[in-house]
Amino acid sequence: MKRKAAALIAALLMLSACSVPGPAETGPADAAEAAEAESLPGAADAAEDSDSPERGSMPRSGRLACRYFDSREYDHYDAVSTAYETDGKLLCGVAPHHLTAGHFIAELYKTAAAANDEIETVVLAAPMHYKSEHKLCTSIKDWDTAYGVLENDTELTALLCSRLGAVPDDEMTELDHSASSHIPFIKRYLPDAKVAVLLVSPDAGRNFPAKLAELMLEMSEMKNCLLAFSIDFSHYLSPDRAEYHDAETLRAVMEGDTSVIERFTNDNVDTPYCLSAFVRLSELLGADINTAEHGNSFSIGNAPYSTTRFPEGVTSYFVFLSFR
After folding, report:
1. Contact at 8 Å (CB) between 231 and 199?
2. What percent of the chain has pLDDT over 90?
3. Is residue 38 packed enough to be buried (19+ CB in 10 Å), middle (13-18) or exposed (0-12)?
């Protein structure tokens, strides 16, 4: 798959030279993410204003809900997704959080189940799309899913709080689709695993990627973990510009250039710190990064491109898998 990555970079660069009708659109990250989330299957309950999400509507006891997942769409995600052959044990990976690319999310957890069926906990790091007074949020509560209850690994969640300073915020954790979109897939493909979720704000700090990678390494030594990152890539661009920036991102990931990754904007990735942590973690684990999937909301949508259909531009997606 390393050869596949090199070929994909070349293909993306060639595609980026092709002209696609319609100018690239830009806009505030929070507003555009919320708008796209609302268009996804099962997303009718998404917040209308990402800067002021509806708070106080969730009971202060009980479990968290997966607001945006529609189980009626699951057969499609399952049918068009593949468990990839691995060169060893799958230790960590990246998949999107938009359910437009739900089959990409399924591929991460299908592969994890096939390559390591004794996973005890999925540690999931995801971007924080809504404004919060906290730089890092988490929850110690379990999740209700269409496939049963996904239990929280309270031991590892406590480490996210004590070592990184994450603050329990049940409402924020439930509200943000970046984490909740993954939860049903974890329960479906890894039914005996638990979960520990970390939401990461853009203000987490320049030292954060190294600290997260080091803590995740320690967690992997404590338990059989899948260390997962929920990341969407280029935003608000026309397809040709998205392809150009995706090639740039892919090159930085495969070369392990975290200094470049951490300077990326939404043209490349929605959470540079999480992507940098993934690359750093793969190196600490001695794991090889492989490119399993790439696409965008235009290329996987089977519909003609227009600025009317994509008023905010397109969003790109990768699936990266790290084996040892």
Report:
1. no
2. 70
3. middle
Give the C-alpha separation, 263 to 20, whole Å: 27
- Whether the pTM exceeds 0.85: the reply is no
Coil vs helix vs strand at 186: helix
C-alpha–C-alpha distance, residues 95 and 317, integer Å:
7
Question: CATH top-level class for 2-19+26-44+67-323?
Answer: alpha beta
* One-letter amino acid for residue 265 of the chain: T
Residue ranges per domain, the chain? 2-19+26-44+67-323
Contact 97, 177 (CB under 8 A): yes
Q: Are 69 and 184 in contact (CB under 8 A)?
A: yes
Residue 3: predicted pLDDT? 46
- Kindly indicate the confidence band of residue 47, based on its pLDDT and cuts at 50, 70 and 90: very low
Cα–Cα distance between 308 and 116 in angstroms, integer?
44
Indicate the angle between helix axes 154-164 and 208-222, nearest 10 degrees: 150
What DSSP string describes 192-242?
T-EEEEEEE-TTS-TTHHHHHHHHHHHHHHHS-EEEEEE--B--SB-HHHH
The answer for residues whose C-beta is within 8 angstroms of residue 35's C-beta and 6 or more apart is 312
